[in-house]
TrEMBL record:
Pathway: Porphyrin-containing compound metabolism; protoheme biosynthesis; protoheme from protoporphyrin-IX: step 1/1
Biological process annotations from GO: heme biosynthetic process
Pfam families: Ferrochelatase
Keyword entries, A-Z: Cytoplasm, Heme biosynthesis, Iron, Lyase, Metal-binding, Porphyrin biosynthesis
Cross-referenced PROSITE patterns: FERROCHELATASE (PS00534)
Protein name, entry field: Ferrochelatase
Classification of source organism: Bacteria, Pseudomonadati, Pseudomonadota, Gammaproteobacteria, Alteromonadales
Length: 337
């Protein structure tokens, strides 16, 4: 057998030269059941980009403890957010794919749009192989993480590289590594906050809650924290908010290590005692609503706030398939088509 995979002469040497856009997001279990969640978490948490502790020690902890306990608990949470179209993250990503494809066509670009999930399905290797067979040899990858982070963006790159390493005829490749300060992202976030304020009134505090990361990663050189700060600064400048109008926090802590601070849940719990009983929460690291926004913020953190004496809690949805968001994606990829 040949060492590198190639296409037969027919498909390999003619009808090529097509351009494809590949959207990548994190992924989600196939079903909200303990066995499907176990499969998903086993792949996710074994990724050395995600958990950076010595492999042997981590495999013992992961398989000995975490994968015995967490799947049942997480499956119960996934059940709460599951829809008739499946996991929100996947369903929303599919809508983004369809709409981006339509917008690029409208603008006269002859590029197809594809979707892959870093963990679970549709997988990165399956999607790339299908694109290869369709004659795509110009590839633009847009990982849907606005702020570069090694556990997310670099991990998406690893999965793509791992597949391409096996190919004989490599595509031209453009990999978008971050868009945390892209003007269209800032506009889309500001518009969505403004629409909420116009409809529901300006809250006493806007909480901008980002997915967390171990603090150690920041000291090792991951720019994620600084990129989150920049996204927030640009959005609040655009909205003309004052320092007291908002707070930046980090959610979804996993494990016992110190993660980026301040933590979302502790901050939200402390607000009512300071007289802040009316808040709106937005999660600018999530391009699609998912477990971490729908269950953790809209569910858990709402209870935390109300339990501490808070009165009005609003969650401002992720940008999902908003027109602004799709336009941003189109403008980000267009220069490379
Ligand atoms: C274990 C370490 C984790 C790091 C580091 C991490 C970073 C990180 N994650 C996202 C985006 C998402 N994470 C999601 C779920 C999720 N994340 C972790 C762990 C880490 N994430 C776990 C264990 C889980 C699974 C949920 C659970 O069992 O509790 C999701 C949602 C997936 C879904 O199906 O809805 C997203 C999206 C970012 C942006 C990030 C950046 C540093
Ligand atoms: Fe995560
Ligand atoms: Fe969570």
């Amino acid at each position: 057998m040949a060492r590198f995979s190639g296409l037969d002469k027919q498909t390999g040497h003619s009808a090529r030269g097509k351009t494809g856009v590949l959207l990548v997001n994190l992924g989600t279990p196939d079903e909200p059941t303990p066995s499907a969640v176990r499969r998903y978490l086993a792949e996710f948490l074994a990724d050395p980009r995600v958990v950076e502790i010595p492999k042997l020690v981590w495999m013992l902890i992961l398989h000995g403890i975490i994968l015995r306990v967490r799947p049942a608990k997480s499956a119960a949470l996934y059940k709460q957010i599951w829809t008739d179209k499946g996991s929100p993250l996947l369903a929303i990503s599919e809508q983004q794919q369809t709409k981006l494809s339509a917008v690029l066509q409208q603008h006269g670009h002859d590029a197809t749009v594809h979707l892959a999930m870093r963990y679970g399905n549709p997988s990165v290797p399956d999607t790339l192989q299908a694109m290869h067979k369709q004659g795509i040899d110009k590839l633009v990858v847009l990982p849907l993480y606005p702020q570069y982070a090694a556990p997310t963006t670099a991990s998406a790159f690893d999965a793509i590289a791992k597949e391409l390493c096996k190919w004989r005829y490599l595509p031209a490749l453009h990999f978008i590594n971050t868009y945390h300060d892209h003007p269209d992202l800032i506009t889309a976030l500001a518009n969505s906050i403004e629409a909420d304020f116009a409809k529901n009134g300006k809250p006493q505090k806007l909480v901008m809650s980002y997915h967390g990361m171990p603090e150690r990663n920041l000291h090792l050189g991951d720019p994620y924290y600084c990129f989150c700060m920049k996204t927030s600064r640009l959005v609040v400048e655009k909205l003309g908010l004052e320092k007291d109008d908002y707070v930046i926090t980090f959610q979804s802590r996993f494990g016992k290590a110190k993660w980026l601070q301040p933590y979302t849940d502790a901050t939200i719990e402390s607000l009512p005692a300071q007289g802040i009983k009316d808040i709106a929460v937005i999660c600018p690291a999530f391009s699609a609503d998912c477990l971490e926004t729908l269950e953790e913020i809209q569910g858990e953190n709402r209870h935390v706030f109300e339990g501490a004496g808070g009165e009005t809690f609003r969650y401002i949805a992720a940008l999902n398939d908003n027109d602004d968001h799709i336009k941003m994606m189109a403008n980000i990829v267009k220069p490379y088509l």
